[in-house]
From TrEMBL:
Protein name: Protection of telomeres protein 1
Keyword Transmembrane among record annotations: no
Family matches, as Gene3D superfamilies: Nucleic acid-binding proteins
Family label: Belongs to the telombin family.
Predominant place of localization: nucleus
Lineage of the organism: Eukaryota, Viridiplantae, Streptophyta, Embryophyta, Tracheophyta
Single GO term (MF): telomerase inhibitor activity
Cellular location(s): Chromosome, Telomere; Nucleus
Amino acid sequence: MEEGELYKYMPIKFAMAFVNKKVDIYGVVIGYEKPKPTKRSDMISTMTIMDMSYHSPGLRLLVFASDSEKLPRVKTIGDIIRLHRVKIEVHKDGFNAVANIRYSSFLLFEGRGGTSYIPYHSSHDKFTATSHDEEIINSLRSWFENFPIDSGKNDYTVPIKGIRQGVYFDLCCKVLFVHGISKSVSIIYVWDGTDAPPKEFVMKPDEEMDIHADQLEESLIASLPRNILCKFPCVGTVLRVFTEMQIDELLRQLPGIERWVKLRNMTCRTQSGIWEGVMTHTSKVSILSCQTEERYERESTERLESESTRLPQWCPKLRESITVTDCEGVRFSTLMDIITHSQVTYKFRCLVRVIAALPGKVEEFAGQRLNAENHAEYFYRVRLTLEDPTAQIHAYLYAEDADKFFTGHPAADLRSSGSSLNVLKSKVSKLLGIAECTSEEGEKRRICNPPWIECCVKSYYIDKHSPWESRRYRIFGTTLKG
C-alpha cells in the first residue's frame, strides 16, 4: 500500500459522539443492500458496519453518489470498509453515518480469510494508505474471525415451507434464475430446499372438478423452457417471486445467479392455486456472508442426497394411500424428476395429489370408439392434474390403464349406470379430497384437500419428429382402492 497522510481513525463507538461532524472510520460490513435510486436524482447504498467497540446493533451507513457505479459494491458480508469524511447524524433516536462521494471516499477489502491489503473496490482511482491501515485491517480480520456470524435468520425469517398468504416476512433463498416478463415486471426464481404448503381449494356446490384443471398454464413448467428447468433442483419448491422492477435494475440488486440472498419484507399470494412471492416497494435484497451461504447450501443439498428426505415434507410419514401400484419397489420420483428426465419415454413412481379432473363431471369420463371388429365400445379418457411440491403436470387415464385404475367399474355409458355411477363419483371425490361444508354465512361449499397418493406415470410422445415438444404423461399400473 502507498505511504501517505496518517489519518486518525476512530472506533465506531467514539465516532458516534461527533454528531454533525465528519470522521474517519473503519468497519466490518454486517449488512448490505445493493444501490437503488433515491427520490432525488442520485443513488444510495445502505449497509450496517461494526467494529470491536460497537457491534450490536451496528452503525447504519448511507452512501450517496450520482450513479450506482460510484457506490460501494460489497462482495460478501464480513468484508472491511474504510471511510473518510463521513458525517455522523442522529435519526429517530439512532445514529447514521452519511457519506457522499462528492466529498467522502471509501475502500473495500476482503474480510475474514483475506490476506491482501489492496482494496478490491475504491471510490477514487488514487488513494493513500500506510502500514497503520494494514494494522487496522489485520486487527479487524482477527477479531471478526471468531465473531459469531449472522445466520441470516431473525424473528421474521421463514423458509418456503412456512410461507403464508398476506403475511410479510424475510426469506433466505438461492437465486436460480431471473426473467423479465415486461418492461416493469421481473421474476426471481428462488429455492431453499423446503416444500411450499399444499393448498386447499374452496368450490361452490355447482362448480365442477375441472375448476383448477387449467392452472398448469400459470405454473413453473409453463413459464420456462426445458433447458432452464433442467438446471433447477428436483426436490423442494422453486418459488416465483414477482417484483415491479426492470430486469437490468433487478440484476444490479442481486449478487448473482446461484447465490444465496435474503429477500426482506416480501409477501406471498396464490394465483390459480399456485404460490407466488411478491416484492413490494418496501422490500429489499440483502447479501449474506460466505459462511452463511455455505451453511444454507450444505443444509439444503443434504435433502437431495437422501431417499427419505426427498419425499414431500407435508406428506404424513404414516400414510394410508388410497391407491396401490405395480411398482412398489421402485424409488419415488418427484414431478420435476419426470419433467427434466434425460429420456423422452420412461416410467416413474410418484407421490402426488390429484387437484383436478377433466371432464369435470364423472358421467362424462367415458366416451365411445370403434374397436378392431368395427363395433362401438366405451373407453375411459380422463385428464388428471397431478401436483407435488416441485411441479404440476397433466397425466391421462386412458383405456385399459383407466380400467385398472377404476377396477370394478369398467367403461360404460355412465349416464345410465345408476348405482355404479354413484360409487364412481364417491371414489373420485375421495381422490380429489372433496368434503361438503357450510360457511359462517350459511353458504354451502366444497373444500378440496386432496390426499397424497402413489401412482405410476409413464412419459411418451405423439409426434416422432418432435418428441420433446409433443411429450405427454399417462398413469398406468395404478388402482384406486375402495
